[in-house]
Amino acid sequence: MAIKNLAPIGAAVVVCSLGLSGCQSTSMLSATTEHKTASPSSSSYYVSTSGSDASGTGSISHPWATIAHASTKVGPGATVYVAPGVYTASFTTNASGTASAYITYTASNSSFSATVNCAQIAADHGDLSLCARLVGTDTDTWVNNGNYVAIEGFDVTGPGINGIYTQGNATLISGNHVHDVLTNTCNDDGGSGINLNGTNAEVVGNYVHNIGPFPSACGYVQGIYFLQAGGYAWNNISFANSGFGIQLWHYPSGEAIFNNTVFNNASGGIVLGTDGSNTVDHITVANNIVVNNGGVGISEQGASSSSTGIHNVYENNLMSGNADGAYSLQNGLTAKATVSKSPGFVDYTGSSTGNYQLLSTSPAILAGTVILAPSFDFDDDPRPTTGATDVGAYEHQ
Predict the structure, then answer these.
(1) Bond before 215 cis per omega within 30 degrees
(2) pLDDT tens digit string along 111-133?
(3) Alpha carbons 116 and 108: distance in angstroms, whole number
(4) What's the topology of domain 4-358?
(5) Which of 200, 212, 281, 286 is the most exposed place for a label (fewest CB within 10 A)?
(6) With b meaning 16 or more CB within 10 Å and e meaning fewer, what string describes 126-142?
(7) 150 alpha carbon, distance to own chain's centre
(8) Alpha helices, DSSP H only, in the chain?
(9) Residue ranges covered by each domain of the chain
(10) What does the pLDDT look like over 355-392, one tens digit per residue?
């Protein structure tokens, strides 16, 4: 399976609600319809469990053994292809790309002839031995400090606080299966499957579940966690986490949360807020399926009513079965074009055994807005570019 080829983060565009209920500027990534294949070039490097950091050259015939070592050898425009196998270690990458030349770390097949999307493999109940499987041993499985870095297609787990943690600007995290992180702990140190402590984070098509001591609720441990300003989440499936499926907390602003499927999280579906003195504002939450979560489906929270602003927009979300209701919004905000029906999944189990594609009778079909909706879905299938689009991570085919 190939990962959608995404262009680097570009110029600011205007995010407007369908009913013109609010507009804001935010940096967004433009998507193409191309797929990536592993084609050798002077900027291609290789990692394998059979490689060597000591004697390897990073070539296809003499690969390195670890992503951490590769990161000390590469620069802007480099792609590091990682073969299937189990890589047991927690590690840090520090190298930075540029806005026009990302450093890309991508899972590949054993011959390095094509990329692999482990989020899609997991969602399809496929063979995870085809994946580059990163098993952490310490606080975070993967810490990225570099700017303009893409992390694509891995299977990530570990006992530490975070599966993937980034504080680099404009990190793209795409097509990863992140699961079973911090499964025995709940305290105010927090934790998450994907932790976005860098600006302009781009989170696309990940399959995130069983973060924290689920089924116990723990509001400190999230599936996907934005802490800073800018960026977006598209086409993610986040479920069976102890906290929220997607949380935006501390200093987020200017994010777009579109076409995600969020269900069976113990504390709630999607939450925006802060316990600081800043205001979380200019965030659009649209085209999401948010169902069967503990707590509220989509909520604004914080130390006071000024913790969230008046420019947040909530539209075209499908909401049902959330324990404490669909929405809890502040400052007189109301949601628009909400679909209050069961989503009509192919096979809802609430766990990784289910199939969260849409039945032909699903009320999510054609219930979304195309304004800033991604042009592809979780499976890289196209979404309509005119008229209406489906709600949730999958477009009905």
Answers:
(1) yes
(2) 999 999 999 999 999 999 999 99
(3) 5
(4) Pectate Lyase C-like (2.160.20)
(5) 281
(6) eeeebbbbbbbeebbbb
(7) 12
(8) 67-71, 118-123
(9) 4-358
(10) 999 999 999 999 999 988 999 999 999 998 778 999 99
